[in-house]
Write a structure and sequence with these properties.
Layout (H helix, E strand, L loop, with lengths): L1 H12 L1 H16 L4 H9 L6 H9 L4 H20 L2 E4 L4 E4 L14
Antiparallel strand pairs: 1-2
Helix pairs in contact: 1-2, 2-5
Length: about 110
């Protein structure tokens, strides 16, 4: 269970840390003797957690395939961290923050 606790904490830290912990847990799941045992392990996780959802979605795949897909997801997350996207509540549109941000009349940056 320590691995799962570390993974849940990593989700709050950074995408790279989460991906690293996620792949560790995936390898543990894939090293289990049977698919039934792996499914039981995943179902014992907190229902609806990001971890359990990811594991359930990836159980049928080969570990190398999961790692390759996860690396692709990480690259997307990393690129979004460099240029954060924010939701503007008043217009329900998204805007990408850049160095040339401007202040609104209320002093908020957009």
């Amino acid at each position: 269970m320590r691995d799962l606790d570390r993974l849940e904490q990593a989700a709050d830290e950074s995408p790279r840390e989460y991906l690293s912990r996620f792949l560790e847990v995936m390898s543990l799941v894939h090293n289990v003797d049977s698919v039934q045992a792996a499914g039981s392990f995943v179902r014992s996780l907190q229902p609806g957690s990001m971890l359990s959802d990811h594991l359930l979605l990836n159980l049928p795949y080969d570990m190398a395939d999961v790692q390759a897909k996860s690396e692709g997801v990480f690259r997307v997350l990393e690129s979004h961290q460099k240029a954060p996207v924010i939701l503007c509540p008043s217009t329900s549109s998204t805007r990408r923050l850049t160095r040339s941000t401007s202040k609104t009349e209320t002093g908020a940056y957009i």
